[in-house]
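Minutes, methods subgroup
Present: GH (chair), OT, SY

1. OT presented the first of two proteins processed in the latest run. Sequence and structure tokens recorded below as shown on screen.
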Amino acid sequence: MSQFKPYKKTFDYSYTLGTSPTIELLEASPAIAKAVFVAPNSGHSQGIQKIRTLSAAHSIPCSEDEKTIRRLARNENCFAIGVFKKVLSKLAADKPHVVLVNPDDAGNLGTILRTMLGFNHNDLAIIRPSVDAFDPKTIRASMGAIFKQRIAYYDSLDDYRTDFTHHLYPFVLDTPNLLSGTHFDQPYSLIFGNEGTGLPQTYQHIGTPVRIEQTKHIDSLNLAVSVSLALYKVYTNN
């Protein structure tokens, strides 16, 4: 039986659930890959064949193991799983950052990681407490984009500011500064709050607060949508 158990946050390793994120792991970060499992009946799939080729090229054990896949993926429909060592990175001092304050949804975090990559942002700071960036649900939602990103955790925004002197742009609901009219000075940090509560009131007085224009028919936008809108703005107009 495989030595690997269903994921827990305390593990020093995690899993890619699915063909696409496993390929991303093997292409972008083969040095942290520990093992790969594929479903026995998926041998003719182009994706599985690519996984086998990449695993062999990097001398990563790759085995057919339906029981391990079912145990680790639980209720997920999955044909491949990659096992990798969890590694945090040092953020680039001269690049823009996205800062998430207490995010608590794995799907949102994964979507944000993928969106960041799509708009050429590769540095994410996460302020604790937060959802686990290495939860397999996050990895799957990112479609493997996490393996091309730099991620660092901080216990507070003050700790983050000790390391970086970026221009701060907290996204809040109560400010006259609209996203459409804001110019973001480099290097900048786009700061977003928790899915349920947003940023605390104190963030209104930090840096240059920004508001995303919206109708009054809803209280606020989804976190991943808000990040996407902000990243699109700076990518296309800044």
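2. SY then presented the second protein from the same run.
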Amino acid sequence: MMAETVRRHYQRMLEEKRPWPDLILIDGGKGQLSAAREVLKELGLAVLPTIGLAKEFEHIFMEGKNEPIILPRDSNALYLVQRVRDEAHRFAITQHRRLRQLQLTSSVLDTIKGIGEKRKKALLKHFGTIERIKQASLAELEGVPHLGKDAAKKIFVYFSQES
């Protein structure tokens, strides 16, 4: 998963001809660093300096070095690297939540005329997933509270034509 994220990010940078970073900081130890380095090599970007910051002991790993760099606990350099890592982590979580919310609020149901937010929520509450809505019979759809027979028929016909 992490390797695919790195791949997408740097392919976008290549396409957009954006400037390259002076240093890439990976949130993780040797394994994550190794995976990221493989992706960078595949993209022809092996020249970019990359380090990994392992969370448990806050050790810094570099490619080709067996032993980690251990900065003093009260070091400003360690504090800076931790803050960068934590901010990137916060940003990633926020972005993931935003994308997930978009997925939850936009669906194939939005393309069916006459199905608004209230009916969409009622359908999802009743069936749980879009897949179960697609598999529902007309009678099952008509049994959804606040949906009505006309809307149920529209949904049934829509998904019948889709498959």
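Chair's summary of item 2: Residues 105-158 form a domain with the DNA polymerase; domain 1 fold (CATH 1.10.150.20).
Next meeting: continue with the remaining queue.
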